[in-house]
Every structure is written in C-alpha cells, then in structure tokens.
Design a protein that fits this description.
Number of strands: 14
Oligomer: single chain
Strand content: 15-25%
Helix content: 40-55%
Shape: globular
Distance between the termini: 32 Å
Radius of gyration: 22 Å
C-alpha cells in the first residue's frame, strides 16, 4: 500500500530531531505512527527495530548490547538515526537511551509508542531535556482531503481557502468529507478503504485487536463488565458533563475505580476530558468535566451505530466532538481548552488559550439563513474582552457583533489561516 505523506507531522519530526536527540511519537494505535516513521526521509545512515520483538527487547535492555548492535547495523561511529517502534515495550529502555545519546552526540533517536501511561513512567524523568513528544492524532479534516482525493485539492484547500471563503465557493468534494468524519472517524486505514462494510470491519478490528488488548493489561478481571459498561456510557454522552457518582452507580464500580479508569482511558488516547473555565482554578478541578472521544469511528463502533446523519439523534453531539478534534489537531500541545457554563445552564462549548490568543467557539449543527448570535457567547466575549469568537455551523460565513459565523469546513483556518 502506497504511503500518503502527512506533511505537517513530517516537518515536526524533522525540526524536533534538529533540536533534541530523542523524538517520541505518541498516540492511539492505528493513527499512523509507524507509517509516519516509514515515510520520514532521513539523509544519512539509519536502522529500524521493533520493540515488540523479544530479541530486540533483550538487546536494548542493556546499553553495552545496544552499542554493539548499533556498531554492526548502523556504523562504527554510531552516527545516524535509530528508529524504535513501540519502544515502551523494551525493559529498561529509558536509561539505555540516555546512555546512548550522552555518549554518542551524533546519534538521533526516533521512537513511537501507544501507551502514555508506560511512556510517562519510563521516559520523562530520566530523559528530561533530551526528549520531545509529538502527539499523533487521527486524520484532520485537511489531511482527509489528501487521503480521499489528491494533492491538487489538498493544496487548494491549504493555500487558497481562508476564513473569508464563502460556502458556495467551497468545493463540493470537500463538503462530502464531513459526514465521513462524523460516522467513520479519522483512522488512516479507514480512509484508505472505500466500502462502508469494510470500514466498519476495520474499526471493529482496531477495537478488538488493539484497544481491548491494551485494556486487558490494566483492567482487573472482576472489573471488566463494569469497565465495558463505563466505556459505552461515555460513548453515549460525548460533549456532556461526566458525573462520576452516576457512573459509579451505573457500572457498579467504586467512585475511585471510575476515576482511575477515566484517567486510564485518557492516557490510552481513547477519550479526552476538558474542565470548566473558572477564575479560581482550584474550583474548576472540583467541578464536572466534559468528555470527548479522540476518534468518532471508535466511538460509533462502541454504540454500534453507523446510520446516516439525517436519521440520527446524536448528530449535534458528533458535530461538537468533531470540532473539538479539529481544535486539538490544529493548536499547540500546550494550549488550554476549557468550556464555560453559567449557573442557569447556558454554555459556551470551547474556550481556547494558546498563550498568544484566547478564542471562544460555539458549535451548531445547523444551516443558517441569517446570523442569529448566541446571547451567552456575546456577553462572555464582552466580559472577557475576547476578540476571536466563532460560531461554527454548516454553511454561513459572516461576522456580526464580533462573532464570526464560520462553515465547519474552515475550522482549521481559525488557527492556521
């Protein structure tokens, strides 16, 4: 199968390797980390190994063995690129990597891993200052243009479309991609398949073969029924507040077990929780968070619903989740993403602070004939003096009272326009 280059990630990898000796690609299984590694064009000697293989685990668990291996398969001076796929599977890998980069300054190391729990435990402390993490997500909207169509349409979207591009100017091929995202998510393998039945089969395989295998490593046998129930409940309430007391009652898991498994699901890149926007950050930590899935295809396989959007009751929730994914895929990893809710229940979906700008964003899965702004959004913008405010919808592109009604197809342009 031909590798389709994901240009922005390849550029991030290149820049990272120039700045630090070790670069680690992290993300859910099947989001394309290995394909990125294989398509990365390194000018120089390189060797690639798989951390899941027992013999590689044995070699790289000891620094002297790793050095001898690299002298044979890289070069005598150990000058070049070492690639380790699923590196977190190797025992004692963190101190070995430290010894390698400290003793061989011309060695660069590119790793991939799928479990943030294991990676954080094994890497962050001992490799401080030597490592940079790059979060690899499933396909963004613009990347899906490249996967579904070609470079020409992708380049047109990236270079010619702006925040001011009118709805009727947007290529109809691009418009069709929204439904694909809301129903099948953004896993690269799914986008390379044309048949709907095969798309569903791939998602089922990813869930059964990869996610459940990882889950079994952390979930106790006696908790498996409750955990599966927890996962399905979360899938049914995307974009809603998570009440841990209610989860505990519904799953028969303890409150603390629910907290533990929510943390686990975040570290496994299955869900993401965002906290409410509060002046007092301590108060924010005590309040309920909202939940989103990091891939809508996985979410839909969990609830076994691949119906078209016109007959679904959750189209609005899927749309909001999709906007969230576009936000995290197009903002800096250190950006702060929150939501705002008043005492009477009025809500702003997303408040984003990227250290340079603050944005307020509301998602509305509807066609607008004319701008009808949301009172809560307008009032919040005035109080917080927010200049970049967007109401993302299906068709309207206009500005009223400093609120930009923006077609969903241009969401990326908010941050990369």
């Amino acid at each position: 199968m031909e590798l389709i280059p994901r240009y922005e990630y390849l550029e991030k990898i290149k820049k990272s390797l120039e700045k630090v000796p070790i670069t680690v690609l992290i993300g859910a299984r099947q989001v394309g980390k290995t394909s990125l590694i294989n398509s990365f064009d390194f000018k120089g000697s390189k060797v690639q190994v798989d951390g899941q293989l027992p013999e590689i685990n044995e070699i790289f668990s000891k620094s002297d063995q790793a050095v001898e291996f690299l002298k044979i398969y890289l070069n005598d001076s150990i000058n070049g690129l070492l690639i380790i796929d699923e590196f977190q599977m190797i025992n004692n890998i963190s101190p070995v990597l430290k010894i390698l980069v400290d003793n061989f300054p011309k060695l660069k190391i590119l790793c991939s891993g799928s479990s943030s729990l294991e990676i954080v435990q094994k890497v962050k402390e001992s490799l401080a200052g030597r490592v940079r993490f790059i979060n690899i997500n499933s396909l963004s909207f613009s990347e899906s243009i490249l996967f579904k169509y070609d470079d020409i349409l992708f380049d047109e979207y990236k270079s010619k479309y702006t925040l001011n591009t009118g709805f009727f100017i947007i290529n109809n091929k691009i418009k069709t991609l929204l439904d694909y995202h809301l129903i099948y998510g953004g896993m690269p393998r799914v986008w390379l398949e044309n048949e709907p039945e095969e798309k569903r089969q791939i998602l089922y395989d990813i869930y059964q073969t990869y996610l459940l295998r990882d889950i079994r490593n952390y979930v106790k046998n006696e908790d498996s029924v409750g955990f599966n129930r927890l996962l399905q409940i979360l899938a049914l309430q995307i974009g809603n507040l998570v009440n841990i007391n209610e989860l505990s009652r519904s799953t028969k898991l303890s409150y603390y077990k629910c907290e533990e498994y929510l943390y686990f699901l975040e570290q496994m890149f299955i869900i993401k929780m965002i906290k409410p926007s509060e002046t007092n950050k301590r108060n924010a930590l005590k309040k309920m968070k909202k939940v989103y899935f990091l891939d809508l295809g996985i979410r839909n396989i969990l609830i076994k619903d691949f119906n078209t959007l016109d007959i679904r009751l959750d189209s609005g929730a899927l749309f909001e989740n999709f906007i969230f994914l576009e936000i995290i895929k197009n903002t800096k990893p250190y950006s702060d993403i929150e939501f705002f809710r008043t005492k009477d229940g009025a809500e702003i979906d997303f408040i984003i602070n990227d250290m340079s700008n603050t944005y307020s964003i509301e998602a509305k899965y509807k066609y607008f004939k004319k701008p009808t702004y949301i009172k809560t959004l307008k009032n919040f913008n005035e109080i917080k003096n927010i200049k970049k405010s967007f109401l993302i919808n299906l068709n309207l592109n206009t500005v009223i009272d400093n609120i930009h009604f923006l077609p969903v197809y241009l969401t990326e342009k908010i941050f990369n326009g």
